[in-house]
Amino acid sequence: MVYGLFKSKFGTGAVVLSLNGAVVEVFLPAAGIEKIIKKKYPGAVKKSVKETAMLENYFAGNNEIFIGVKTDFSGLPLFTGKVLNAIRNIPRGETVTYKQAAAMAGNIKAARAAGSALARNPVPVIIPCHRVLAKNGLGGFSAGIKWKLRLLEIEKKKINREI
């Protein structure tokens, strides 16, 4: 495994890649991120990777599109992979509901399962799970609602904070 660090106005984040260059995990900016990486991925080597520049670009508010970024969902359940691949192309600044995400993954009746799949997203931002909302509000986000709002605001999608 290799990892790269990226800087943002929120702090330092990280991206972890397999040896074949597929993104395995994205860590949103947090204190002590390198210590977290070393604990979760012992033996991972710090390296300069193109994805760090892409993430810095994104967090700077630029219209970064993560085309061509390989991801590795091999350790996840099949439906989770389907949902994550389906939402990959939701355009910046647009949102869909959990029901729509389920339909995009091939099962319109699996909105709750889609929500559970999104909660397992190991590569937030690159796979934009923050763009999936509940029909009557924000819904959840594994890193917390504050992060979901931050990411939507970076993309200029203003959401009523009262929701």
CATH architecture of the largest domain: Orthogonal Bundle
What structural class do you assign from the helix and strand content? alpha/beta
Task: Report the β-strand fraction as a percent range.
Answer: 15-25%
End-to-end span in angstroms? 40 Å
The CATH superfamily of the largest domain appears as Winged helix-like DNA-binding domain superfamily/Winged helix DNA-binding domain
Average per-residue pLDDT, rounded, comes to 92
CATH topology of the largest domain, what is it called?
Arc Repressor Mutant, subunit A
C-alpha Rg, in Å? Answer: 15 Å
Ranges where pLDDT stays below 50 over 5 or more residues in a row are none
Q: Which sheet architecture does the biggest sheet show?
A: 4 strands, mixed
* Helical coverage, percent range: 25-40%
Give the strand order, joined by hyphens, for the main sheet.
Answer: 3-2-1-4
Please identify the top-level CATH class of the largest domain: Mainly Alpha
Q: What is the domain total for the residues?
A: 2
- From N to C, what is the helix and strand string? EEEHEHHEHHEH
How many β-strand runs?
6
Quaternary organisation of the protein chains: single chain
The coarse silhouette is: globular
The helix tally amounts to: 6
List the helices and strands and how they pair.
Elements: E1 2-8, E2 11-17, E3 23-27, H1 33-40, E4 45-46, H2 50-59, H3 78-87, E5 96-97, H4 98-104, H5 111-119, E6 132-133, H6 145-154
Helix pairs in contact: 3-5, 4-5
